[in-house]
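Ticket #4471: structure output looks truncated?

Reporter: J.K.
Steps to reproduce: submitted the chain below (102 residues) through the standard prediction queue, then opened the result file.
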Amino acid sequence: MSRTEEETREAIKPMIEAGIPPVVDHLASASGTDVVGYLSEAPGFSTFIRNEGAVFHAYSTTARGLEFLMGYYPILDRAPKGRNEADSPLWLRRHDEYAQMH
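Returned output as attached by the reporter:
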């Protein structure tokens, strides 16, 4: 999915008004762009159907709606701490970045 800068600013207006989450700012910076640039491009999934020569858009999703495509999420969902999203806005870490368990 791709949006213009104006479309992105309009789409994220509620997020801007509420305050950009630090994780979004971090990911934008790590990607070498600003928040608007970072959020103007995003993965998406769409389905279409052709009926009597006409093509119809049947379904689209982005963000967390794409989890069914990410094979590691179901594994994390079954792990002792699950996704452990409450501990950090950057919840997914490499195996050697977790604190020692007591």
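Triage note (M.O.): checked the attachment and the full token line is present. The chain has two domains: 1-42, 44-94.
Status: closed, working as intended.
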